[in-house]
Amino acid sequence: MVVSLPFEKSKKLICSCQNLLVYTKPKIRMVAQVIGLMVSSLPAISNGEIYYRILEIEKINALKVAEGDYEQTMCLSKQARQDLLWWCANLEASSRSLVELLPSVTLQTDASLLGWGAVLRDVSTGGRWNEVESKHHINYLELKAALFGLQALCVDVHNEHVRIEMDNTTAVAYVNSKGGSKSPLCNSIAREISLWCIEHNITLSASHIPGVSNHSADRESRVFDDKTEWALNKSLFNELSDIFGHPDIDMFASRLNKQINKYVAWKPDPQAFAIDAFSIPWSNFT
């Protein structure tokens, strides 16, 4: 059973979005009115939550600058305008199912200030944060761990309901709400998670578990074999590549020590082209 917007309500929202796109600097009140129409339509619009958060965040920030004056104008970012176009293009055909698949895959993820960890059935993986990532708030890192867990362990999962078990209530809320307006950074990761799941036709939900029940993922986020994380000096690698030719792929690497973007990891990795260099043919690469 599915629900969809009545034609008149759908048409009103589309016209409102199109009208807003005409303005270079619309009034904050006009943006707020469009957001109100979007929010009221969410029960009937699949994934609509993803595509109004940036507009909401920009409205909140503009209202702070304007000291609460809704008659002041504001700028819309390129992403906000693209999201308005999504509403215009998808609203008429969109609906929302009232019946949801029961969870069939359970993924446990965790984060520490050192790294991330994920466990799916009897397979676990994890790794350190890079220098930039490690400076973020733990709520952001918990969401990043969920994203990496999905990318590393659920890449072959399709048409399933994946339940992520996490011990951070803020991260659980952001996953289930497909974003949030309080933290733009957390919203950006929640959006990335949602879009990845749409691409893989995965229904996603999250639930909270006590930290003591998340020990395997927790261990992966704290215990590392740093002996495997070494690499040639980047300038030396570039010099050798100029002499012997530029490789297509880094066959023995990880997210942190890869020399080029396409690489093969030795264990499940969120960005790897493949896992285990000895399990794939090398003849297609240089």
Automatic annotation (TrEMBL):
InterPro entries: Hepadnavirus_pol/RT (IPR052055), RNaseH-like_sf (IPR012337), RNaseH_sf (IPR036397). It comes from the Eukaryota. SUPFAM superfamilies: Ribonuclease H-like. This is Uncharacterized protein. One of its GO terms (molecular function) is nucleic acid binding.
